[in-house]
Amino acid sequence: AVVSTQSTGKREDIAFVAYSPLTSPGKRPGEASILENELVREIAERHNASPAQILIRYQIDKGNGVIVKSVTPSRITENLAVTDFSLSPGEVSQLSAISKSLPGGPSSGRYFTFPNFRNHPRHPFLDEK
Predict the structure, then answer these.
(1) pTM above 0.85, yes or no
(2) How many Å apart are CA 16 and CA 6, to the nearest integer?
(3) Is 37 helix (H, G, I), strand (E, B) or coil?
(4) 53-102 confidence digits (pLDDT tens)
(5) Does the N terminus or the C terminus of the chain have fewer Cβ atoms within 10 A?
(6) Long-range contacts of 86-93 (CB under 8 A, 24+ apart)
(7) Strands (DSSP E) along the chain, which ranges?
(8) Are the C-beta atoms of 112 and 20 separated by less than 8 Å?
């Protein structure tokens, strides 16, 4: 049976966090940025927002916490300005569909696994060591 990570998380009261949702430290040279994706740009234009704001709002609308790194004051301000709009359910579905095949998505094999947590007594996969 296929089990949804999101539904399991809700049922078990687990909060999900989008860590580095705009780009990845593991981004490979020449790999396209999700910020340049045509759909993301179209949705951004509809909402008079930046692609970064759309991707942040997407995670919020999915119920995820979001951690975005920036040292540029103007980008920090822009990243916080996502409370005056929401994405439609259709837009969330569209973004969810493309996220599965984008660089850094589930098919890329690139996740932040936090290997230092493997010895924590509450690590969820202790039996897989």
Answers:
(1) no
(2) 8
(3) coil
(4) 999 999 999 888 998 888 899 999 999 999 999 999 999 999 988 866 65
(5) N
(6) 86/57, 86/61, 87/43, 87/47, 87/54, 87/57, 87/58, 87/61, 91/43, 91/58, 92/58, 92/61, 92/62
(7) 17-19, 65-67
(8) yes
